[in-house]
Amino acid sequence: MALVTISGYPSSGKTRRAEQIRNHLETRLQDSAYIGPKLKVAVLSDDSLNIDRGAYNDGRAEKLARGALFTALQRQMGADTILIVDSLNYIKGFRYQMYCAARESRLRVCTVYVLATPELCREWNTVREDGRAYLPETLDSLLLRFEEPSSMVRWDSPLITVPWTDEDVPADDIWKAVTEGNVKPPNAGTQAVPKAPTDALRALESTTAAMVSAFMAEQSIPMGSGGSITLPLSGTLRPRITIPPRNVTLAELQRLKRQFVTVHKKAITLGTIEKGAVDWSEESIADKFAVYIEGNLKP
């Protein structure tokens, strides 16, 4: 349904704002006047994933923490969920990554920027009593590296800023963003690449090898020069190939087979960029190989 990304300095009050947003959304969803689809509100945070603040002391540990957060985000996103991500989200590249995941799932997006001065964040971090304070040097490093959200870029838009002076979040704006905002369709940059089935390599090798054998067997039958021949691979698999008016050698066919298999092995391993062309059945492979032979055999 929607992804709400919370961003802000460490110890700026993001968790409090996330709870305010959740309370407002749940209240409106439970209101008798609400007639939309049945939705649930979930909050994903470092605390819910048991990610210690110490992870931000080291770049490698922080990268692992972001990976765990992103994996959990992908798992919890859904058409029936308004997901609030309560984390630092201070790197614009990571916010863009989350935006792409939301777009792939056809979710609305909204970014809430929790604004507070660095001085206040340092003060609030010092007085924390929940055991979740940052080390002073870590806090200073995160403040310096913070990449502020911008309403001018699509992955931060719509952007709703909540300053520390406000007692509550702008619930109306957030509600409108998650229930009425535009749902951008996935494109080539955000769609998952379709993968081939697990037996595609076996089918590729066995089908092309059978076609080479059948081709040589058919060619040995006196039939004049050139023309179209049918390769009887099975009762239902009988591809047709037009051959040149000369004898085609086994070495030629083996060379074409190796080239064909090499090209398509790469497509099987990495996925395919051909839209709607992820058919690795024996029939499809036989038809493609027949066309490949016809196009690459010299007259």
UniProtKB/TrEMBL annotation:
It comes from the Eukaryota. InterPro entries: KTI12/PSTK, P-loop_NTPase. One of its GO terms (molecular function) is ATP binding. Pfam families: KTI12 (PF08433). Keywords: ATP-binding, Nucleotide-binding. Belongs to the KTI12 family. This is Chromatin associated protein KTI12. It comes from Postia placenta MAD-698-R-SB12. The lineage of its organism: Eukaryota, Fungi, Dikarya, Basidiomycota, Agaricomycotina.
